[in-house]
Amino acid sequence: MDYSDDPEVAEFRAGLRAWLRDHLDEHRDATGYESAESVERTLRWHRALAAAGYVGLSLPAAYGGHGLPDLYEAVLNDELATAGAPPPPPIGHIAHAVADFAGEDLKTRVLPGLLGCTEVWCQGFSEPGAGSDLASLTTAAAPDGDRFVVDGQKIWTSGAMWSRWCLLLARTERDEPRHRGLSMLVVDMESPGVDRREIVLASGSREFAEVFFDGVEVPAANLVGERGQGWRIAMHMLSYERGPADMGWVGRLGRVLAAARDDVRSGRLPADEPLRRRLAAASVDLRVLQWHVARSLADRDPGGSAGSVDKLLTTRIEQNLHHVVGDLAGTSFVLGDPAPYGDYLWSRAQSIYGGTQQIQRQIVAQRVLGLPRG
Ligand SMILES: Cc1cc2nc3c(=O)[nH]c(=O)nc-3n(C[C@H](O)[C@H](O)[C@H](O)COP(=O)(O)OP(=O)(O)OC[C@H]3O[C@@H](n4cnc5c(N)ncnc54)[C@H](O)[C@@H]3O)c2cc1C
To answer: In what residue span(s) does the Acyl-CoA oxidase/dehydrogenase middle domain sit (predicted)?
Structure first.
């Protein structure tokens, strides 16, 4: 992606490229969550990136970040993808929620571990009965003097099995309307009463867990923001999670497209006229997305609804691209190299996490277009 680098950005980019030249080879296989070994390789990659100064670029320097403009996050994603490196740690959305809402003491205690990747975090929002309708969640955090006592269950919690901390959305105000009764807590996953149970996916990934909380004590000092502010913080966080710049999608897609184009150009994969046209259309889509990402970064809207547009657009373009790649490859897509098929499966998950496509469309209809509720 060409961001027309100014001198500082160009220097950053050159330094990153040099670092990748020297260090990437030992981390190339840090891509999965299928076994304890692959998790450890992935976490080692995250720690190496952090130690080299490439995590938390747009987060405040006082807490372990680097205080740079958002654009640097996109440059990082771009360079990692171009070099074929594993993705950076997916923590920007959690870090922004804590940095923007937590008090000084909490930020000082927890952000350096998060941004240094020495302590892994997970996001405890979804419950068996509350996914799209998140505000109906029932996990309770009962205020009790200088602590909260948490009881309930979360599900689909990415990374919970190896997380030290959970950013937990729970109900603290039983008598308030449902959106206003929620608060955000930082929960130590090693506390007595926390029970994590692994969920193994059909793809073999062990990324998910369900997490049970049984009388878990959380110090009141671990409350992020104010009591009853949980919904607002969750929406702020999701606005980052839905943005393509934070998740590094665009760079990865450019690599997938380039590989498909090379396969067709070299004749390794035969492509008839309709398939060639679909590949060309995917290439145009991707260019549109690149410009959209650049604009989103220049016009960041934390807590707003723009992330829903980003997520809808990116998911559609990504899923379409993987369809084209699959159709080009034919049966070898499923029977050959597992990586492209794994990317395809991952693209399917993208229309679910961080809020499904249907939910994003509702947000765009109501909050961006101002249409009445159906
Ligand atoms: C890869 C991945 C990672 C995830 N990581 C996490 C995590 O770390 N932490 C976490 O808390 N959660 C996580 N999730 C869970 C995710 O947030 C939920 O799966 C998602 O919000 C949908 O909730 P649900 O699964 O309960 O589906 P449901 O809400 O039951 O939805 C089922 C279907 O009904 C549709 N639907 C529901 N309500 C409406 C409506 N009002 N109008 C129209 N259609 C509707 C949905 O769009 C969907 O198609 C992850 C999910 C995935 C796939």
So the answer is: 122-216
Residue nearest to ligand 1 atom 4, measured at CA: 353
156 lines ligand 1 (CB under 6 A): yes
Tell me the three state secondary structure of residue 315: helix
Instruction: Name the active-site residue from 37, 241, 273, 318.
Output: 241
Tokens matching residue 294: 């650049």
Which residue, among 168, 177, 71, 73, has the nearest Cα to 115 in the 3D structure?
Answer: 73
> In terms of Cα–Cα distance, which of 139, 31, 144, 161 is closest to 84?
31
Domain count, the chain: 3
Domain-located, residue 66: yes
Instruction: Say if 324 falls within a structural domain.
Output: yes
190, 290: one domain: no
Are 170 and 182 spatial neighbours (Cβ–Cβ below 8 Å)? yes
Q: Is 203 in the pocket of ligand 1 (CB under 6 A)?
A: no
Residue 192 phi, psi (nearest 5): -60, 140
In which domain, by residue range, is 168 found?
Answer: 121-228
User: 277 CA to middle of ligand 1, Å?
Assistant: 34
Between the CA atoms of 356, 204, 198 and 231, what dihedral angle is there, to the nearest 10 degrees?
Answer: -20
Beta bridge partners of 194: 213
Catalytic residue check, 190: no
pLDDT in tens, the chain (374 residues): 555 688 999 999 999 999 999 999 999 988 778 888 999 999 999 999 999 999 999 999 999 999 998 888 888 888 888 898 988 998 999 999 999 999 999 999 999 999 999 999 999 999 999 999 999 999 999 999 999 999 999 999 999 999 999 999 999 999 999 999 999 999 999 999 999 999 998 778 899 999 999 999 999 999 999 999 999 999 999 988 877 655 556 777 888 999 999 999 999 999 999 999 999 999 999 988 888 877 777 677 777 787 888 889 889 999 999 999 999 999 989 888 888 888 898 888 889 988 999 999 999 999 889 999 87
